[in-house]
Design a protein that fits this description.
CATH superfamily of the largest domain: ACT domain
Radius of gyration: 20 Å
Shape: flat
Number of domains: 2
Largest sheet: 4 strands, antiparallel
Strand order of the largest sheet: 2-3-1-4
Number of helices: 5
Structural class: alpha+beta
Strand content: 35-45%
Order of helices and strands: EHEEHEHEHEEHE
Length: 182
């Protein structure tokens, strides 16, 4: 069975962070399975799930990463995943959707949308927000990727979003993720 680690890192945004981290994985025969990396104003945040070859231990990898962590002044959390955490990797049996929310910036948008999804047992797999200024007004955008368990939940969620749209005074668009076959 493959061994996996999850790694999160954040530090001042500067060129070379991704190359430095992934070089260690490449040179040790590790595989970057899943990742999300983004700039957050002046910081850069990294989330990675990495599989390790049999010959590489968690401790070895951690030791090899320490010089990079220090050089780039990264705050890092790394943990070895338990077998039960990775046994269900593969093709999900859910409906992947993207929800886009746009409107004037005000507190509570993320909470109310996330709470509505939680009440429907919908899993949020990715969330991005951004504030832009336009003619003196702060415009807010929220993009969520989510896994909707079934068609009945989808219909109920769509109904709840219509009420939420009015309550929050925002525009919302819920679209299925297009899955292309490779």
């Amino acid at each position: 069975m493959k061994k996996f680690i999850s790694l999160s890192a954040i530090g001042e945004d500067q060129p070379g962070i991704v190359a430095a981290l992934t070089k260690v994985f490449y040179e040790t025969g590790c595989n970057l399975e899943n990742s999300s990396m983004t700039q957050l104003r002046g910081d850069f945040a990294v989330l990675m799930m990495v599989s390790l070859p049999e010959s590489v231990t968690f401790q070895t990898l951690n030791g090899l990463l320490q010089p990079i962590i220090q050089k780039w002044n990264l705050a890092v959390t790394m943990r070895e995943l338990k077998p039960e955490e990775v046994e269900n990797f593969g093709i999900p049996s859910v409906l992947p959707y993207t929800l886009m929310v746009y409107g004037l910036d005000h507190p509570g948008i993320v909470y109310r949308v996330a709470q509505t999804a939680t009440e429907q047992k919908i899993n949020i797999t990715d969330l991005r927000t951004h504030v832009t200024e336009n003619n003196g007004a702060s415009l807010y955008s929220l993009i969520l990727e989510m896994e909707i368990p079934n068609q009945a939940t989808l219909l109920s969620f769509q109904k709840n979003l219509e009420h939420l749209k009015e309550e929050l005074h925002v525009d919302m668009t819920l679209k299925p993720v297009e899955v292309d076959e490779l």
